[in-house]
Write a structure and sequence with these properties.
alpha+beta, about 50% helix, about 800 residues, seven-stranded mixed β-sheet, six-stranded antiparallel β-sheet, elongated
Amino acid sequence: MAEKTLTLPVTGMDCVNCAANVERNVRKLDGVQEANVNFATERLNLTYDPAVLHMDDLIARVRKAGYDVPQQTVDLAVTGMTCVNCAANVGRSLKKVDGVLDANVNFANERATVTLAAGVTRSQLIAAVEKAGYGVVQVEDEDELEDAEKAARQEERRHAIRRLLVGLAFTLPLFVLSMGRDFDLWGAWAHDSWVNYLFWAMATPVQFYVGRGFYDSGYKSLRSGAANMDVLVALGSSVAYFYSIFVTLGVLGDHVYFETSAMIITLITTGGLMETLAKGRTSEAIRALMGLRAKTARVIRDGAEVDIPVEQVRAGDTVIVRPGEKIPVDGIILDGHSAVDESMITGESLPVDKQPGDPVIGATINKQGLLKFEATKVGRETALAQIIRLVEQAQGSKAPIQRLADQVSAIFVPLVVSVAALTFVIWIVGTGDFAPSMIRMIAVLIIACPCAMGLATPTAIMVGMGKGAENGILFKNSESLERARALTAVVLDKTGTLTRGEPAVTDVVIGTVNGSISEEQVLTLAASAERGSEHPLGAAIVRAADVRALALHEPLHFESITGQGVRAEVDGQTVLLGNLTLMTGHNVSLNGLEAEAQRLQREAKTTMWLAVDGQASGVIAVADTIKDGSVEAVQRLHELGLMVVMMTGDNQATADAIAQEAGIDRVFAEVKPGDKATYVRQLQDEGYRVGMVGDGINDAPALAQADVGIAIGTGTDVAIEAADVTLIGGDLRGVPRAIALSTGTVRAIKQNLFWAFAYNVTLIPVAAGILAPVAWAPEILRHLHPILAAWAMAMSDVFVIGNSLRLRKFKLP
């Protein structure tokens, strides 16, 4: 391959020595002919052999040297593609553009995702696509792309329907007349020579109006150096059509096949339209997410409430949302209390209570009270916009399982043409009958279907990822979706993942002081004493009292005793709240509560003693409690056959107590934050394929080390860089759901690929006549007609898409 010249920006260079360092490192790469770095312009000028050097290796070398190559990703909505080979042609054309690092074209959603160096313009990419013979939906404002693409796709469908109607108008009467003549249904007139001219006239509009797209697309693909499926259709129909013309003119034979050429084109056009409609259904989840967006927002401008389009909301605006209305953008509540239905974003069915200071997510529904909040993220920065963007990018990525199908598709058309030609030669030599030999050759050309192989993976990926997004599960790319099914162990970070990450009251044990005292009284006295404290344990007790709606007293003479607890006067009584040291230091009578306190401590709970007027009245236990659903999540992971491991910085006793409560199989305790990745690697060395579940911040190295990193999101933070999978709602039950969804999606992909390969491997030989000598074989298979071949080919794609669509009804655990 000829050498290529490329200019790339490089960041992080501070001096000319940095520039020299980049040059030295880049020149060490195989395939590099020349590398010069201009420190003034911060540009790397490179001459290299693209057959030897891949851009990923170049960028990795620059980064290893301590610098970076800025990149950006551009999405293009491509029009005019009719099969997977078209998508391959577009990808090759885009990769030829200087500065393009990678281009992935997904035929299923008709999108091209292009990774390029800074400085490459969108117009350069569009020009490359158009040069290859395809189109790109163009808009001035990126926010208008959705509407423009929708309009372009609708116009494509309308044009396909018009072509189909014309095809049916001419093909059906042609087929009836032709078949009736073959079965002598119409009388002697049907065998007059002028009838062949009538058939010719009826077939011509089908061949060159309805079938024009096949000729155009086939020509473009050949011009690009790679034949696509349309080449096969154009070849097969053209052979039948032009042979029939020679018969009509008296040059060859005596039987015309105009109905065959017309039926081939009409049936495949029908299948193509069905395929387009079915493909549209694979992205219904994304369209549903887009449909969640609010159209208007009520904001305060110049002291007055005004309704404006949601696109005009600015960060910092004060937004008003009444009960039953949709929250238009992300923000922080300033005033009001309510319950908000976030199920459409997080997948959680129960409404979430909201109060001042809590975040709200755009597109969720305010169920009860009036809310006033400050807009923090608007437009493309909202959580919903991020989710849509992430899912679209992930759907456009290629899964490793797709590589074999891509390799076969690349050589498929030339191989089929060769088989068709060989079929004709074998039969013409063996029988001497031109027409039957030609019919077998046409059947081979028409029945071959590379599209089923090309659609097998991306359609299932699109539906699977859409299903995940509907349930608060975001996969970073197709590879993550494929890998998750192979996990054998899941590591859970304790704090904030398995547990809530903040202390909460778990037990209140009552003592006896001059009679009986109730649990509510103990909690009231303790919370009242702690009202003046900022200690986390004290805050947990105050929260517990608030949950029970207990009326608290104002503490007097509050005193914090470092390392022991607090002392205060509450409702005329002297109250001590703290550890055992505080009690013994003030000669408090413990009233037989020591055994209960020791029991609670063995359960890894922190105990706080309450004394009233010198007598121990109760013991309050506080601990970082397990999240709702965590025990169920661990149980479901066990049902999937996975080992569950907990990782924590707590001591072994505390870790064992929590692990026992949650049903954890194995515990790594006293783990320092920087060592988490080491423990993940230890499990991998033991032969496990490890999924690491954490918050995506402190756990970033461990998430990156794991085979699949799973981050617990917060609802508004959905783009966690280190994670392969993000669970938006923070519910640990999303982990077994993600793994189950991965298993179901990969199963559908394998079914699709099996069908696609089995279809072609079986029916191409049948079309070639392999069953002709077999007496017991059905006549329809011994002499497979091109019309049946066209119908089979058209339906094979629809079968693959239909199987992928079954994932929409996949039941998550």
